[in-house]
Structures are given as structure tokens and as C-alpha cells.
Amino acid sequence: MKFQAPKGVSEYLPPKSQTFSWVRNQFARVIGSNGYELVELPVFEDTELFTRIGASTDVVSKEMYTFEDRGGRSITLRPEGTVGALRAVIEHGLDRGSLPVKVYYSGAYFRAERPQAGRYRQFYSVGAEAIGSEDPALDAEMIAMADSAFRSLGLSNFTLQMTSLGDSASRAAHRVDLVKFIAKLDLDEATRERAALNPLRLFDDKREEIRSAMSDAPRLLDYLSKESAEHFAQVQELLTALGIKFEINPRMVRGLDYYTGTTFEFVHHQLGAQSGIGGGGRYDGLMKEIGGQDISGIGFGLGVDRAILALEAEGKVPAPTTSDLFLIPLGVESKARVLQLAAELRASGLIVEVAYGDKSLKSAMKQADKSAARYSAVVGESELSAGSVEVKEMASGASTSVTLSALSKFFASK
């Protein structure tokens, strides 16, 4: 039987795995430079952690991988990162110290949805959370950090879209009129039940007939309280001061129900239907909802898979890293010395490969060509006796005689 990966998972093999690693590292570097610290979190949590914060969303109601463990507990593979990060902050008392708590994390997430380009059942994301401050400047920092993360990859063909989902008073006032509007629509039973749980969900419906029907629906931005409107205005002013361009999208709804206040998404213009490459927002009330203090927070998730697709679309995938040197031992006696040389050169920061097996010189050179190493060197008895090797530049074919003791110095200048 030939085994294959389950349908809908994203796998990364060389050389694409280099791009995958580079994207995650770039995201982490930018986030870390803003003072956020890494947390490593489990890939599964108690199911209730997710069900109590998003029952009306497709993510929670239809797309979670949930199972019962041997102890009879309901466990779910994490479909997103925020609530797991907040659970860890609460459990380990990080919110009892200096605020805001600023953490980031990365890893695989799981959603049982229909696989398509840019949408996987196992996908990768890097997320960040700042918990314990309502300062609009923190919103601006979070958004600017995500913008910098994407630009650090060389991406440029994307737009930042923003809105505000307001405070509880804003949403309550808007809900009254929105419910009245929806009541006049001709909806199927399932859609009407979904709207009853959270009428904002209809703004997120992908069906054209629903999108058309909701085009004239009341906009939450028109119902913002004075405090919410001032907060959102300050965020916009700060982003403008930072030189970050944005568009206001009053009908934006994120995939989970816990968002409040400032909400944002980065949309890439070359990815078709799955154009969102990252986003997030405020979640005032979420900490309290899952058993923590009644303090606010803001966070985002940056899609690694989507970022790679965006790099491919823009033609900006970085060239793969290749080996610096491919060493070819000739004869049994030279193998030990070649392994020593390889270890010494690797310790100096070089990427070194060694030809294994009793290959002929011709076969070993073919292997060196396939490896795409920048240089190769044959090490046999004569080279060991002379204490030097001919280092061949693979691209030009030019060779340079280098003493074995000076190999590190030779490559330091290349």
C-alpha cells in the first residue's frame, strides 16, 4: 500500500521548506524586535475553550477537529491561536505582573474545511498578543508590526483594511437595527438561525445572494459610541503618522466572534478568493470570558502559507540557500580526515556536504553538481600528503590551491 498525506494538509519539502522557515523566522524577528516574547503552546486544548467564544462561527460549529481522549475528555486540535495563548497567560499568572503582557507564538493549526488554493486543513501561522492595555497606541503598534512583518519579506501588493466593531453599547445599538433589517430578508432556515446567534455573521457570508442582500444593511461604524469613535480615530491618526496606508472597510467581520473595537486585515491583490494574508483586532472581554481578569487585549495572526503564496505571486521567493562546499573523499584513509574537515568548517559557519558511499570520482562530481554547492574539493592520499586541496568553483570551473589549514580563511573571503 502506498501511503499519502491526508487531503488538505500543507507540506514543505526542499527547497520550498527553506522559504517556509525563512518566512516564519522573519515574522518572529520583527515581532521580537517589538519586545514580544515567545511562548510554546500545545496543539490541542479542552473543546470548551473554543465553543464558549464562537458558537455562531463556522470555525467552531463546523470546522473543528474534536475527539474524546482516553479519559473521556473532549479535546480539540487548535483552530486558531489567540484563546490558547490567553489560556496560558491566565493559567500561569502572566497577567498578574507588569502589563501589557506581550507574547508571540507559531505553529500548525487545524480546520476541517473544504481544501482549496490557500485554504488548508492544517495550516501555519505566527501570532502575537498584547494583553492589559486599552491604549490606541498599542493598536497602532500591533498593526504596524504586522505591516512590517509582511514588508520584511519584500511583499508590497497588499492593502491594510480596517474597521471598528465598537464597544458593547455600540454593538447593542447596531444590533437592534440590524436584526430588524435581517428580519425582512428571504433567508433559509440555517442562515436565519446563524443570524439569530450573531447577526454580524451575515456580513461574512461568502454566498453572492447573501452579500447582495446585506449590501444595504446598517453599518456598525455609524453606531459607534463617542468613546469607540475617538479610540478608532486615534488609531487612524497614529497609523498615518507612521506612514502606514489603510482603507476603511465598514463591513469587515473576522472569522471569530470575540473581536471588538479596532479590527484589521491585510488583503493581497494577487491571491483571488483567499486574499487574506493576516489580520486581527481587539478582544475586550475575552480574558474574562475564559476565566481571567477583565482586561482588554489585541492580537493578530500572520498566515505563513498565504505569505508564501503571495511571495510566489509577486515573484519574490528568495533563492534557496545552497552548500558552500562539497567534499569528496577518495579512499578509505581520507574519509576520517574529510569528516574532521567538514566538522571544522561547519563550526566556522559554513554549510558543508560530504560524498558518502564508494562512488567513483565521476559519480561523486555529478552528485556535487546536483547539490548546487558553490565549491567542491577532492581529498585523497596525495592531497593529504601535500596538505592542500584544489577548491573548484562549480559555476566557473576555476580551481584554487588551498592548504587544509587555511580552508576556513579562504571561505571567509568568499
From TrEMBL:
Catalyzed reactions per annotation: tRNA(His) + L-histidine + ATP = L-histidyl-tRNA(His) + AMP + diphosphate + H(+)
Entry EC no(s): 6.1.1.21
Pfam family for this entry, one: HGTP_anticodon
Molecular function in Gene Ontology: ATP binding; histidine-tRNA ligase activity
GO annotation, cellular component aspect: cytoplasm
Domain Aminoacyl-transfer RNA synthetases class-II family profile: 23-329
Keyword Zinc: no
Keywords (A to Z) from UniProt: Aminoacyl-tRNA synthetase, ATP-binding, Ligase, Nucleotide-binding, Protein biosynthesis
Gene Ontology biological-process annotations: histidyl-tRNA aminoacylation
Keyword Ligase: yes
Family: Belongs to the class-II aminoacyl-tRNA synthetase family.
PANTHER family in the cross-refs: HISTIDINE--TRNA LIGASE, MITOCHONDRIAL-RELATED, HISTIDYL-TRNA SYNTHETASE
Protein name: histidine--tRNA ligase
Native organism: freshwater metagenome
Organism ancestry: unclassified sequences, metagenomes, ecological metagenomes
